[in-house]
Write a structure and sequence with these properties.
alpha/beta; eight-stranded mixed beta sheet; 10 helices; globular; Rossmann fold
Length: 271
């Protein structure tokens, strides 16, 4: 599947607490905001955006990530959701479809609960409803590794996130061991983001979501296992679901065409 989205136009806006949020606006049509996971970068979505013809796609680096500055507010899923709503205001977008992957799905969920009139449809990809033992143990271990050896933490991520065969075919995605790339500030940003995702808990509120909702997952996802997406389906009224047989946690990258097909074929996509 291919798209004809136009060249991306950069934008920057500053939140009340001084965070500078930098992103890109690309294409024409009804707006869709794509929200990244723990990495928090706009670039994660580029393979997907290039295939979403007929939509205005908004991507951005989350606070403290890439071209965006940290600001002074405490980082939580609620704070990151307020940043998304701030972007909608800054870009003069009344409402948009939100696509959130992993932590981005938590942020999209929170946006829908904070300001339901601003979210026309909700696509939750590889995400979860609240704390669970599997993810708590996994991310506690990742947090300890980050604190001891951040370069090794980074080097392990692709092996958790992609299918082995696909990763062998794309060796450029395996980062080199470069400790000098990590300073105290970068480590602190990732630490607080891990703590924020582990603290997220909206199980009891999901039954109030009224937007059309599509839940996506991959059966071989080792970071956010498929049973966590199934819990969302069971809690959100009328939620629909699509599961890829493979693709790992980063299936929007490893199975981009399949991901885009499921999104654009969903009956809520045209809202």
């Amino acid at each position: 599947m291919s798209g004809a989205n136009q060249t991306a136009t950069p934008f920057t806006t500053t939140t009340p607490d001084g965070a500078t949020l930098s992103g890109y606006r690309q294409g024409t049509g009804a707006p869709v905001v794509l929200i990244s996971g723990l990495g928090g970068t706009a670039s994660f979505w580029q393979p997907v955006v290039s295939r979403l013809a007929g939509r205005t796609c908004i991507t951005f680096d989350q606070r403290g990530i890439g071209r965006s500055s940290r600001g002074t507010a405490q980082v939580s899923i609620g704070r990151l959701a307020e940043d998304v709503l701030w972007l909608l205001d800054a870009l003069e977008i009344e409402s948009a479809t939100l696509i959130g992957h992993s932590t981005g799905g938590c942020i999209a969920t929170e946006c829908s609960l904070l300001a339901p009139d601003r979210v026309s449809a909700l696509i939750l990809s590889g995400t979860w409803a609240g704390p669970n033992e599997y993810m708590t143990r996994l991310f506690d271990a990742r947090l300890r590794l980050l604190q001891v050896d951040p370069a090794l933490y980074q080097g392990l991520n692709p092996y958790l996130s992609f299918p082995a065969e696909w990763l062998v075919q794309h060796p450029r995605l395996i980062p080199q061991y470069e400790p000098s790339n990590w300073d105290k500030q970068r480590v602190a940003v990732v630490e607080e983001r891990i703590k924020a995702l582990l603290a997220f808990n909206r199980r009891d509120a999901l039954s109030t979501l009224a937007q059309p909702c599509l839940v996506l997952g991959a059966q071989d996802d080792l970071v956010v296992p498929n049973f966590l997406q199934q819990e969302i389906v069971e809690r959100v009224p009328g939620a629909e679901h699509e599961y890829l047989t493979d693709g790992g946690h980063f299936y929007p990258l490893s199975r981009t065409d399949a991901f885009v097909k499921r999104v654009t074929n969903w009956n809520g996509w045209e809202r």
